[in-house]
Amino acid sequence: MDFPAELELLKHTDNVNQLLARYGVKFSIYKNNQFKEQLFPFDAIPRIIEADEFAYLERGLKQRARALNEFLNDIYGSKAIVRDKVIPEDFIFMSKGYMAECDGVVPPKGIYNHISGIDLVKGKDGKWYILEDNLRVPSGASYPLIAREICRICCPETFRDIRIDDNRNYARLLKKTLDYVSCGGLSVVLTPGRFNSAYFEHSYLAEKTGAKLVSGTDLVVEDNQVYYKNYNGRKERVGAVYRRLSDEYLDPMNFCKDSLIGVPHLYDAFRAGNVAILNAVGNGVADDKGIYYFVPKMIHYYLEEEPILQNAPTYLPFYKEDMEYCQAHFDELVWKDVSEAGGYGVVFASKMTEEQKKDFKAHLDKDPRRFIAQDVIDFEDLDILGKDGSRVPRKADLRAFVLLADEAMVWHSGLTRFTTKPDSFIVNSSQGGGFKDTWVLSR
Questions:
Q1: How many CB atoms lie within 10 A of CB 289?
Q2: How do residues 48-102 score in pLDDT, each as one tens digit?
Q3: Alpha carbon distance 377, 124 (integer Å)
Q4: What angle do CA 92, 107, 279 make, to 5 degrees?
């Protein structure tokens, strides 16, 4: 779908990318003890979603986020879903993301997944499928935000001539969420520092929401109250912490004792009900790739509704019948290691050598809980601009953002990621992918 104004925008591609570089729109990778900071490639051809189609997605995304929040309240509370044998007990408590320290601790307003980043693809059959739920520290909203902002500067006529939902309200939605759960005082964005992969986003969202950008050394806990120490030593009460570091590094007194980036006793203040932590500690159990299998059952169980959006067809080798299916159809499946993220640990059986298949099956037999298998969805290609200026098709997904406050709110935009490789299905930025703006057409 092309619009004349969209085609006009494409003439400014180089200017847009130059400004993105000037503003430091980067994605950093720290792996194998090496730090690599790189630009996050932007493609000016937008993904365009019709208003009615997005309204359908919006209903399904709200439903899913609500069910996941109910699950987290339940699993750290009465555990009814386990008692009623909807999800096997050992399957949950074997999850790397389950944190026993959170048992019986209820976050302010009962909200765990304040910000959910839900990844979807649109199959060539025209149906949308959920690939995974990101409920710990989902990132990516800042990139389409600043890209749209820069595109407006470079080619303002584009956004005068096309009716597109304005995406600049993300900061307002995030601030509403922070304010709704705050226990009184400042809101802060807690960053592990500039070597984090999404440091640009931390600073950008802090600026846009009016929150303080802080590191662990800027906060102190006294008498189970959290305070921000400003430049002259004056302390100000903190009511909400939008944390951008993993659970285990958040508080060295309660979790990983070797953490140098956390805040001692922060979780004690949270447990006492004196500060909100966004997203709540312990959410990892709900974005476990194995637990993903059960989300449609959660929707039935907690909401008594039919799921609006479907999972990709998924199999759990943990179950005998699924293991038998996986063994019989091994070469047709994509395998995912539930302990990995960022596109790592994803392997297509059809591309394995016989030796690799043998090694993988040995790991699978030893620890079936560690893996899920999915049918390979031939999801849609979107055009990107090639190096010579021509259009070339590449696989692309969509990360949608759902925020929970007094209501569920879906941002009318999203992060569209694409692979730069013609034969790849892996779109993650950590794997060299790029991103696009997502235009939701107005009614």
A1: 24
A2: 999 999 999 999 999 999 999 999 999 999 999 999 999 998 889 988 899 999 9
A3: 8
A4: 70
